[in-house]
Structure formats: C-alpha cells, structure tokens
Write a structure and sequence with these properties.
This protein is of the alpha+beta class. It contains 17 helices and 12 strands. Bound molecules: thymidine-5'-triphosphate and magnesium ion. Thymidine-5'-triphosphate binds near residues 65, 112 and 113.
Length: about 400
Amino acid sequence: MSYDYSRKVMESVFFHADIDAFFAQVEKLDNSELRDKPVIVGGSMSRSVVSTCSYEARAFGVHSGMPIAQAKKLCPAGVFVPVRMKRYHEKSVEVMSILQSYTPHFQQLSIDEGFLDMTGTKLLLGEPEKVAEKLKAEILEKTKLTISIGIASTKYFAKLASDFKKPNGLFYIHKSDELSFIQSLPMNKIWGIGKMTVKKLEAAGIMNTKTLSRLSCQQMQLILGTANGLFLYDIINAHTEHIFNETVRDHSVSTEMTFETDVANTNVIENFLFELSSELSYRLIREQVASSTLSVKIKYADFKTVTIQEANSVILDTVSIFNEAKKLFYKKWERGNPVRLIGIAALKVLDNEANTQGELFSEPNRNKKQKLVEKTALDLAKKQGGKQVLTRARLINTKETD
Ligand code: TTP
Ligand code: MG
C-alpha cells in the first residue's frame, strides 16, 4: 500500500465565539424598556465596579472594571442594574450548547466565549465564513443574543478576530495576513500585553509595535523576563499555535478583602464571605477550573493570621463555596475577636473537563484540559480587592443577586 505524500497538510481553522456585552445584553433581553439605552451592569454588594455595559454606554467611555461612581459621572443617563449571575449562567448554557453542536472539539473559555476547532469541516459544512454566519443566526434565533465570531488558523488569532468587529461581528484573519495584522495593532491592543508590560516596554524605549517587532527574543526577555519575553516574541512573530493549549495544574485561586474598620458582627462577616464566594466562583468558572479544597484566612486586628482548609466535594458555585467558607470560618474564628481581613482560596485547582456551563456546575473535575491564561480586568479588580476599603452599610444594604 502506498501513501500519497503529495497530499497537502490541512490548515487548521478555529472559531472564537464571544457574546456581545453579555450581562448587559441579557438585561436588555429581559426588559424591553432598556432597549437602546446605555445599560451598565454592576455594583453588587461591596464591590462597586462595572461588570460590563452596553455599547451605548461604552460610547461614553464606560468599561468593565471602572468604579460605578466614575461611570455615573461619565454617563449620567446610564441605567444601572445589579448583577444577576444565575440568569447569565442560564443564557450561557443555551449559547454554549449551540456552539458545541457545531464541532466535537469545543473549548469553553469563560462564561461567554469559547473556541471551536473547525479544521477539516469545509467539505462537509462549507466555507468557514458561511458556517459562522449560520451559527450566529442560529444563536440569535434561539437565544435572542448576538455574538461575534473570529476565524483564524490559531485560537489566538481567532480571539483577536472576534474582538475586531464587535458587536455582532464576523472577521477572518487569513494565515497569510497574521503577521501584518498583529504588527499593525497598537501595543496596548495586543492580547497578552497588559498595562505593566506596556510600561516596561516604554521604559526600555519601545514605543510602538513596529519597534517591538524588530527585537530579538533575547532582547524581549531582558526587558520582560524569560517567560513573558518568549510569550510576547512568539505573539509578535505570529507563532501562536501553542497559546490556549497549555494545562494548569496545582495552583490556587484566591480572593481576600480588608474591612474599613475591624469587624466582629457576624452579619457583616457573612455578607462579606458571600461577596468573596461569588468572586471566587466567578473566577473558577472563568478560568475553567475546579477545586475540592477550600481555605479560609482570618487576619485579626492585631495582624495575627490564621488559616483553615478542608477537602470536600467539588466547589464551583457561589452558594456551596459560601456554605463551606462559613463553616470553616466559624470553626476557626475566636468568637468576638474583631477581624481585619478575610480571604478565601480554592486550593489545588485542576482544569475542568466539562465543556458546557451546565456540566461545569454539576460534574466533578477530572482530567487536565486547556489552560486559560486570560488576564481580565476583573482579575485586576480582584487583586485590588485586598486593598479596597469597604463600608459596613454597603454590605448590609445589598441584596443577594447571585
Ligand atoms: P467580556 O466578553 O470580556 O465582555 P462583554 O461580553 O461584556 O463585552 P464584549 O465581549 O462585547 O466586549 O466578558 C463577559 C462577561 O463577563 C461580561 O458581560 C461581564 C463579565 N465581566 C465582569 O463581570 N467583569 C469584568 O471585568 C469583565 C471583563 C467581564
Ligand atoms: Mg463578551
């Protein structure tokens, strides 16, 4: 038997699908009075930042992670609505199940986005753009939500492409255009270059992507460190096949906050734990990981710090994290001793094998899968959370929305 070596190696085709202004779009869907209005979602419990906002609000400069107070100044006509995670999860499941019906190789990346490996489907399904159009139309018809789709030969470029024509966009970055596409973006628009990286590059005299693209790998590593230098070198030279394919193992996801004044009131503490639980849940889902070991940290007014951890069944959703965290807290807390800071962490997290949001909530985590390396504004907000000042009133006066 002979093998036809002249056969061309098949080019990979990936779609990246991402729901437009997700939380805000769901709010509009559920309340027709919000149609065409600048809708700003956020301000749950103690954390008064914008989760997301509609494109009308974006025109005023409002964006995710911005303090609500600032959003109000920029967009006084904005309609501010609280986060309703449960409802967003429902809609996410609807969208994700349609996405995964298009390919057996679907990778959910966060609550509102995922990759579809469409390699080799051209003969069966047709041109990628046509398939993407059909997919968008099906999602709109069945879920009443618009999404944007990016197409490329790697997941990385597909993700850039979906962002390029948002909202309700469709864009194909062909392989031959990848290098010119990436090198035409301003540095701060290149996915993977955060504010800190831009600062470091500028401090080294690299002011634009063109100059950046001329650096050797060693030069980038000198400026950014070994791993980050290599990561960026690969991106800028359009070597992106490996991105979004690494696996995560044995790291932890944590969040903590400091009280404005030391607190011994259990109502306040429990509200606080709920807020932390909701954040932790959001991050676990977003990073597509799961954990069965929760840890709680308590720092007292005198800075004495204690931690307690316990392995249990898989924890993912806010309520089960909250219940577990509360149990651990009361086990360890010296009753009446005022607390200065509380933290919770999911330890030994593993990639969640589940492909849909629904499975994510019910199934235990199993094998390792793709790593999500996305650095969201939310993560930044959470990091700042440790220093964030909170008021007692805000915590008590808020309703449970998750
Ligand atoms: P994104 O897909 O980053 O944003 P988006 O869907 O609102 O807008 P678009 O994709 O059109 O640019 O995030 C998905 C959802 O995740 C978003 O609707 C709300 C939530 N989210 C936060 O709660 N905080 C954040 O900082 C970010 C970035 C997102
Ligand atoms: Mg989105």
